[in-house]
Amino acid sequence: MNDARAYHTFAVSAKVGQVLVIRNLDDLKSLHSLSGAGKPWVCCGEGSNLLFVGDYEGTLVVNRLRSRQLIECNDAWLIEAAAGENWHELVCWLVSRNVGGLENLALIPGSVGAAPVQNIGAYGAELSDFCHWVEIWDSHTEQFSRLTHAQCQFGYRSSIFKTPQMQGCIVTRVGLKLSKQWQPNLNYGSLQSLDSDSVSISQVFDMICQTRRLKLPDPKKVGNAGSFFKNPIVERQWVERFQPLYAQIPIYPLPDGTFKVAAGWLIEQCGLKGVKMGGAGVHAKQALVLINESGHASGAEIVRLAGHIQDEVYQKFAIRLDPEVLFISTEGFVNPQEVLSNYAKS
């Protein structure tokens, strides 16, 4: 068994059967051999959205495919980036060339290949706003295929890549399309203080980075996986019930008539910001982030803390928070809600 701490940013103690690093297309043949032999494997990029809740007996496939290309068209920039590229480094590379669009997604940890899987988002933008296509490789057929934006079936922190339909497939490249007619996205938080008529791409980028560094822990220093829970989507009836009781509740109307509620605010209102449980803790500056407080926390301790948060929020606000982080156990990826449900029974 191999130590898995170096392959995920939560850095909890966990082991995997084997580690296979994919650095070039030839390495994919080893992946084909695993699938052909019926041996289990799971794929990760930089492991910034993973929690090991147990040792995994199969092979951890680490995507390190690297390449990036910027193509100029009449009205847009096309970007082709290999799945193993670091997401934030790609954003920096584009901003340095005055190519705008992704600056609101700056400093999101992880790889390019993980971005469409999770449909990453922050500060009013999502990967799906810019994704043109996603290339995958099927380990059974050894064939590449390219999925269009529509075929990716993007949703809030979801995509087709999270479904059983994609079992045995690995993201190899992502195509992005950014309009040359850049329009700053300043509808979120402190960005509203910027002047939309004069602001530059780099100014938006700098403010996003400054805000994230002030609020969020560096996973290189404190183990974490960023936002642990999704912001819940509620119906109008919920808003009518709770908004009179909590005038400051952050609620964002959505086009379909539902509303998004800030999960971090809900957790904070339950008095859980900064709470510790075993080696796990809730970050003192951002309640949506759970941390490996001691540096030696186990996956079980993170799960117990997450389950406690779920229970407290449900009792106070009648909302069952849904984890954004992916869980890996003995058999591979498992349903986080089922794991937390088992916590409640224990």
From TrEMBL:
The active site is at residues 157, 227, 324. GO terms for molecular function: FAD binding; UDP-N-acetylmuramate dehydrogenase activity. One of its GO terms (biological process) is peptidoglycan biosynthetic process. Transmembrane segments: none annotated. Keywords: Cell cycle, Cell division, Cell shape, Cell wall biogenesis/degradation, Cytoplasm, FAD, Flavoprotein, NADP, Oxidoreductase, Peptidoglycan synthesis. It comes from Celerinatantimonas diazotrophica. GO terms for cellular component: cytosol. Coiled coil: none annotated. Its cofactor is FAD. It comes from the Bacteria. Residues 12-181 form the FAD-binding PCMH-type domain. Belongs to the MurB family. Cell wall formation. This is UDP-N-acetylenolpyruvoylglucosamine reductase. Its EC number is 1.3.1.98.
